[in-house]
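Re: your question about NADP-dependent oxidoreductase domain-containing protein

S., sorry for the slow reply, the queue was backed up all week. Below is exactly what I fed in.
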Amino acid sequence: MPIPTLPLNDGTQIPSLAFGTGTTLLHHQDAQIMAIIESAISIGFTLFDGAQRYKNEAVLGAAIKASESTVPRSELFISTKYAPMTPGDTAKTALYKSLEKLGLEYVDLYLVHAPNEHMDGGGGGLREMWKVMEECKREGLARSIGVSNFGVGHLLEIVEGAQVLPAVNQLEIHPYVWDFVKPLIKMHKEHGIVTSSYGGLSPLFRAPGGPLDPVIEKIKARLEDTWGKPVTSGQVLNKWLLQHDVLVVTTSTKAERVREYVDTCDVPELTDEEMGLIESAGAEHHQSFFKHTKYYLEGI
Ligand SMILES: NC(=O)c1ccc[n+]([C@@H]2O[C@H](COP(=O)([O-])OP(=O)(O)OC[C@H]3O[C@@H](n4cnc5c(N)ncnc54)[C@H](OP(=O)(O)O)[C@@H]3O)[C@@H](O)[C@H]2O)c1
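Result:
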């Protein structure tokens, strides 16, 4: 099954599964990163999540170019994130640099990496920065614009008075932060903002042995029984996110795992009871794994 899409509040569509070029890929050489991105393109990923801070946009660009004869750029959905890395850079000047590195005329999605870097002068800093993001969209440099690691307060600062609403907010999401992220997701729904997740597999591979593990094992066994094919624990957790209409940003350095991620779309649906079991096991243990999470989630 091709990767399903989610509607954005600017009238476009976004794939619901993305391949990330941060986290584990940051510990690999350029040639290895390029090979894994090319393989992800050939296996069926179309949305690639980059960032200025990852310092590997040129490698992503080279992989896009190398794959052009089989998958044209127009069929890909390329995203990058703004972080003020050079003094004096704005969202727009930084995007020009990204486009040059990527070898592209536009990105499909441009996110603000984190709110705290734009808080000079309180909410005013965020609002000024958002105006420049809107300019990037108006001038066709970015087809859609959004944010990452924004809490309810940060979103309120830019939503009021915005000409273009953020289309996406990308956050750490898994069952061990679910209770804390729910108010934010409620706000996203009110504004048609797509919730995008990273770190979704953290409970399984960054904190194994927690209350979620036996629940996932049980659901995995039930799905294998129903489907008659092997199902992985990661697929169960990513399926839980997808069934909440949460865009999953994941990654891997292994082609077999990349295929496993894409195949998640074919895994049968979890029942309402199974969805609830994951959430109640998650509520027994609160843990976050990424530094930006503290800017928007209280209590963790
Ligand atoms: N906006 C932000 O601030 C922000 C922050 C963090 C991440 N991100 C984005 O989100 C992307 C994905 O983040 P993530 O790495 O946290 O995603 P994730 O889906 O939580 O984890 C992916 C990792 O899980 C590992 N994994 C999967 N199955 C496994 C198994 N059976 N056994 C052991 N390990 C397994 C993979 O390792 P292998 O390589 O061994 O397969 C991979 O490193 C990043 O690359 C980045 O693009 C954004």
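The first strand starts at residue 5 and ends at 7. The mean pLDDT is 96.

Happy to talk it through on Thursday.
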